[in-house]
Amino acid sequence: MPPAEVLAVEDLVARAGRLADAGPRQLLGITGAPGVGKSTLAVQVVAALGPVARLVPMDGFHLAQAELDRLGRASRKGAIDTFDANGYVSLLRRLRRKEPTSVWAPEFRRELEEPVAGAIEVPPEVRLVVTEGNYLLVPQPPWDELRSLLHEAWFLDLDAELRHRRLIARHVAYGRSPEQAQDWALGSDEVNAALVAGTADRADLVVRLAEPPPE
After folding, report:
1. How many CB atoms lie within 10 A of CB 155?
2. Strand pairing class (103-109; 5-7)
C-alpha cells in the first residue's frame, strides 16, 4: 500500500470543497477496508459542505436478504458478489451526467438490514456527489468502470487493531453476540479487507485521519 498522508477532517473538507468548485458536478469516492470510518468521514464532508453536496453510499446496492438466501450468500453478506454492481455503476453514470431532474438513489437501512429504493434524492443543483464503499477501486468488471467515473478517489486507512474493535462493536450494536461479532469481523470482513487493500494504489489520496474515528 502507498504511504498514507495524515490529515485532519477539516483538510479533507477543504479538499472536497475545491473539488465541488471545479463543477458543474464532481464525483468523489471514499473507499477502504470495512471498519475504517468511510461512512463517518463521508457524512462529515457532506454536512460541512451543505446543500451543494449529497451522499450516495454503495451500500444501497446490497442484494435483498431473500436473494442472498436464495443464492446461498447470506453468510458472506458484504462480500463483493453480494451487491448489484451493474446497478451501482449505472447510477454513477447518471449522476456524472448531471441530468436536468432529480436522480433517486437507494439507501441501506441498518435497522432493516435491507436496501430501500428511491430513498436519496440528488437534485440537479448538487455539485458534489460523495459515494463511499469497499469496492470502488476494484479492477475487475463491472467494478472497474467506477474509477473512470470518479473525479477523485480517497483510500482511507486505519490501524488494524482499532478497525477490528470498531467492527466488532458495530456487529454487536446490530444484534450479534460478542462471539458472533468477532467471528464475522475476523472472518468474512477480513476476507473483504484483504481484497480492498490491494486497490489502494488506484486512489488519488491514501489518508489516515489525524484524529481516528471513535470506537
Report:
1. 27
2. unpaired
How far apart are alpha carbons 86 and 72 in whole angstroms? 20
Indicate the domain borders of the chain. Answer: 5-159+199-208
pLDDT digits (tens, 9 = 90+) for 121-161: 999 999 999 999 999 999 999 999 999 999 999 999 998 88
For residue 46, the number of C-alpha atoms closer than 13 Å in the C-beta half-sphere is 22
The span from the CA of 22 to the CA of 13, in Å, is 14
Q: Which CATH class is domain 5-159+199-208?
A: alpha beta
Question: Cα separation of 201 and 2, whole Å?
Answer: 6
Provide the H-helix boundaries in the chain: 9-21, 38-49, 65-71, 85-97, 145-149, 160-173, 178-186, 188-197
Q: Are 103 and 95 in contact (CB under 8 A)?
A: yes
Q: Once rounded to an integer, what is the mean pLDDT over residues 189-205? A: 92
**Where on the phi/psi map is residue 103: left (φ > 0), alpha (ψ -120 to 50), or beta?**
beta
How far apart CA 206 and CA 5 sit, in angstroms, is 6
